[in-house]
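Cross-check.
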Amino acid sequence: MNHPENVTLDLASLQNTIAGLRRALSVAAELESNPGVTGDLQETVRSGVIQNFEIAYEVAWKMMKRWIENNVSAEAVDGVSRRELFRWAAQSHLIGDVDRWMRFHGARNQSTHIYQEAIAVGVYETAAEFLPEAEALLQALEGKR
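Predicted model, tokenized:
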């Protein structure tokens, strides 16, 4: 395996998508504490949280892949499964829990293929779990600059 020279990634897109998810979750939490909020408004905000989660998740795994390609080996992640990519990320100390990231992957897939209320609620809850993991990934990537 070749080990290329460390390459610095532009993390702005990851920073921005994490910030968007954080804002969406904050608005959703505010609405939940307001008894006068309609179900339609809550559902619309929940949809916004889910959309922000989808985008942040996509940017996060692509950043992992790019970092591994640039700093470990392009061959290591070329055509591998998501689980294998997450294993490489864990070995590189970018993430801590492969299974948790696989749950995020599953939630992301559910949210884009099927819309049912129960699934939306589950993905919404997963988005809240994802935020600190995405922030930890960003911190790890920043620390490897």
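The longest helix spans residues 39-71. Residues 12-143 form a domain with the Four Helix Bundle (Hemerythrin (Met), subunit A) fold (CATH 1.20.120.330). Passed to J.P. for a second look.
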